[in-house]
Amino acid sequence: VKDLDFGYRQILVRNTKGKKDRVVPIPDVSREGLQQQIDKVRVLHSSDLERGNGRVFLPEALSRKYPAAEAELGWQYVFPAARLSKDPRSGIRRRHHLHENGLQKHIRQAAIKAKILKKVNCHALRHSFATHLL
Asked: 2 pLDDT exceeds 80?
């Protein structure tokens, strides 16, 4: 959540290809939807915390430096999984991010609803967005 900056209208995308961080713009058309999604995450996170969950996995150096960060809203996923699952690294039940296959399924359904006949996937959206920016 903390990597979305609505003031500067940008998203920090971490650990991309080449292990680099990148900054990409938030399109105006996406702002309201993203803000609504963060509101949903806030409610879900609060509910998880009440049940003794609500913590995300942080790399060891970060978890040592900021021990409370794993339970903060800013470190939660913008698109969390619907269910908690056991973290294989620690054995702790956590809410992970939505799996990429789930995202792809939603994109495919949106394309069908919009009557787009071409193959639509995350990668195609990335390239069409980049072309649009040019």
From this structure: yes
Closest CA to 92 of 37, 132, 38, 54: 54
User: Which letter does DSSP use for residue 72 in this model?
Assistant: S
pTM of the model: 0.82
**Cα–Cα separations (whole angstroms), residue 96 to 56, 58, 75, 84, 90:** 7, 12, 11, 7, 13
CB 79 within 8 A of CB 98: yes
pLDDT at 39: 98
Beta strand residue intervals within 21-101, DSSP E: 22-25, 85-86, 93-94
For residue 35, what is the enclosing H or E element?
helix 28-50
Ordered by start, the domain boundaries in the chain are: 4-98, 99-134
